[in-house]
Write a structure and sequence with these properties.
This protein has 319 residues and is an alpha/beta fold. It has a domain of 217 residues: Flavodoxin domain (Rossmann fold), CATH 3.40.50.360. The chain has nine helices and nine strands. The chain has a five-stranded parallel sheet, with helices on both faces. A hairpin with a 2-residue loop joins strand 8 and strand 9. The longest helix has 22 residues. The radius of gyration is 21 Å and the shape is globular. 37% of the residues are buried. Bound molecules: flavin mononucleotide (FMN).
């Protein structure tokens, strides 16, 4: 079966991230995949400005539309590249312990509401019920696509990297094959063992795409049995712990001298990486948006909004 594997690097031009993205692509190619390489910083990707046209606009989710972003830059080009691939290898430098800011900006637009499988499922449903033939969400958005994440750091400040990638992955329900974080990796290119692991990761994602029914997660098992995260948030009562990635709540217990995350099975019903969990989240958002839309129609809201608007104007540089 012919598959296409794309690698997206966010490092400096021809630096370690680019080199390791190519190393992984060599592995994918020798397994028989067609390959393509994208250097993320070649693209013009503006940040999400929170207009939520993708949700509430004419072509938005709640109108049964495509939810495509209306900002004019290279996002839709990149979306096409990703949608036309079977698997993507994301190779990103570690900045401030996690993904770099430009990847977060991309995440807001590519792993925000308009790419959430729950949102898109609702949009598809609305579109089908409308009886329209044209429009609706892009069918390619629903395809099970594979991802491998590689984080490369210049030190050992890396504890948010895998969680950042995990959160990105669960929105579109990517099937993650490998999740690799390399610390003290400035000279990675010279380290044969770690380079071989990256070549193997390239082979792994190509094999997964060629044989989807035998897909297996090959990354670190982590602490959360549901999503493999190791990043836990201690909630206000300091008794409950929330998995920072999939959002399920439980407690930390010690078993055989090891920390374990224990949670009641019903927590899985609203885990952010499951379709029922996503649908519930969209329904909650829908109710909240409805209440907000009603508040905005009132005189009192207009009075308050006008008062803030008139109070002070933002300073900005002369153009
Ligand atoms: C703004 C900035 C923040 C960084 N923060 C971290 C960090 O928190 N942890 C870490 O291990 N490396 C950090 N680094 C090092 C980069 O991860 C490293 O320079 C990069 O992976 C090198 O890849 P390249 O050769 O592809 O550019 C940081 C680098 C920059 C520029």
């Amino acid at each position: 079966m012919s598959v296409k594997i794309l690698a997206i690097s966010g490092g400096s031009k021809n630096g370690t991230n680019d080199q390791m993205a190519k190393e992984a692509l060599m592995g994918a190619q020798e397994t028989g995949a067609e390959i393509e390489f994208i250097h993320m910083l070649d693209l013009n990707l503006v940040p999400c400005n929170g207009c939520i046209s993708c949700v509430t606009g004419k072509d938005g989710i709640f109108a049964g539309g495509s939810g495509r972003c209306i900002r004019k830059d290279d996002l839709n080009w990149l979306e096409d590249k990703i949608y036309d691939s079977d698997g993507v290898i994301f190779v990103m430098p570690i900045f401030e312990k996690g993904v770099p800011g430009f990847f977060r900006a991309f995440q807001d637009r590519f792993a925000g509401p308009n790419h959430d499988v729950g949102m898109l499922t609702i949009a598809k449903d609305i579109h089908e019920k409308s009886g329209k033939v044209e429009g609706g969400p892009d069918p390619r958005a629903f395809k099970k696509r594979f991802a491998t994440f590689i984080g490369i750091g210049g030190s050992d400040w890396a504890c948010r990297m895998s969680a950042d990638f995990g959160l990105f992955a669960m929105v579109q329900q990517w099937q993650v094959v490998d999740d690799l974080v390399f610390t003290w990796a400035k000279s990675l290119t010279m380290e044969d063992d770690r380079v071989a692991t990256i070549r193997e990761a390239g082979r792994n994602i190509a094999k997964a795409a060629m044989d989807p029914s035998n897909y297996k997660y090959l990354g670190d098992p982590g602490i959360c049995a549901n999503c493999h995260s190791r990043l836990m948030y201690l909630t206000d009562d300091a008794e409950t712990v929330e998995c920072s990635v999939c959002g399920i709540k439980g407690e930390l217990v010690i078993e055989d001298g090891k920390i374990k995350f224990a949670y009641p099975p019903e927590q899985l019903e609203h885990a952010h990486n499951t379709l029922p969990g996503k649908i519930k989240h969209v329904e909650d958002i829908g109710k909240n948006e409805g209440a907000f839309a009603a508040a905005k129609q009132t005189e009192e809201y207009r009075r308050r909004a006008d008062a803030y608007k008139a109070f002070i104007q933002p300073s900005k540089p002369e153009k």
